[in-house]
Amino acid sequence: MENNQLWRTGLLLGALYIAGITFTAFVPYLALVTMFLLPVPVMFFVYKHERKPILVYILLTSLLSIVIGSIGVIPIVAITMIAGYIIGTSLKQKWPYLTTFMAVSMSFLVSFVLSYALISVVANINVFQELITAVEQSVEDSMATFENLDEETRQGLEEQVEQIPQVIQTLIPSALALTSAVAGFLMILIAFVFGKRKGLPVPKAPSLASISLPRSIIWYYLIVLLLLLFGPVESGTYLDTALANLQFMLRVLLFVQGITFLFFLAQWKKWPKALPILISFFTVIFFPLVQIVVFFGIMDLGLQLRQRLTAQKK
Q1: Helix 288-303 and helix 216-230: axis angle, to 10°?
Q2: Concatenated DSSP letters for 176-243?
Q3: CA-to-CA distance for 97 and 117, rounded, in angstroms?
Q4: pLDDT digits (tens, 9 = 90+) for 87-97
Q5: pTM for the complete prediction?
Q6: Structural contact between residues 170 and 244, judged by C-beta atoms closer than 8 angstroms
């Protein structure tokens, strides 16, 4: 009886996963939605069963998915299978929310890089180089639109546009890390919504107002900034690339700190809950506001504003 139930569950959840892969592979405009749903059936199976059935489920479902979707779905299968396994295991073992988030984000990054390496070797396709080539072609095409401008303005715009491919190439590692964090968050968010509806012991996410990063981030950011401005760093070297990526990631962390400080401030001032959400939304849309939020993050960590405001309230 238990074996029959196991097979029924495996077939149902396997069919759901394969249907999701089929939509992802053959209906591209749905891929961004279906990709984040794919870990859900894996999560349910992992949570309910032991190691041996889990291994059989993952192997059979992965093989059938690749047969149906071809070699191009290998990265998606690897990313979503591992993410689903981690989320299911985290619920079974009652991991804290942030531990699950870090594990899923890291698995996304590692799975993507390994899948990219495999496809590069097997299919002889360099995805990142293709991206850079496409950007360079787009830059060349955009140059034609500057012909009617005066000489000084045209030269300034051309110099800025010509730097775009180099900037993209330099910041690929940071972009991958940031993408992994966002994707990990969305996968967990969606999986936990479905898990909660089915009565799984979903951990409570910490409130944004309570999240605060280590104060040492300011010192790391200052050191990197000083090295980039005054250090003996030659453009295009590995050190220059590493420092540029560190600066980018540290600015992202300071931006996150600034956003969480806004939520803390709204809670402390008893503002409407929708206000910090609206501010965050407009900050993402209007890039100049990002610098202000980063400044808030620096001030919060540097001056320990939350501790001061909390003490003042007491």
Answers
A1: 120
A2: HHHHHHHHHHHHHHHHHHHHHHTT--PPPPPPGGG----THHHHHHHHHHHHHHHS---TTSHHHHHH
A3: 30
A4: 999 999 999 88
A5: 0.78
A6: yes
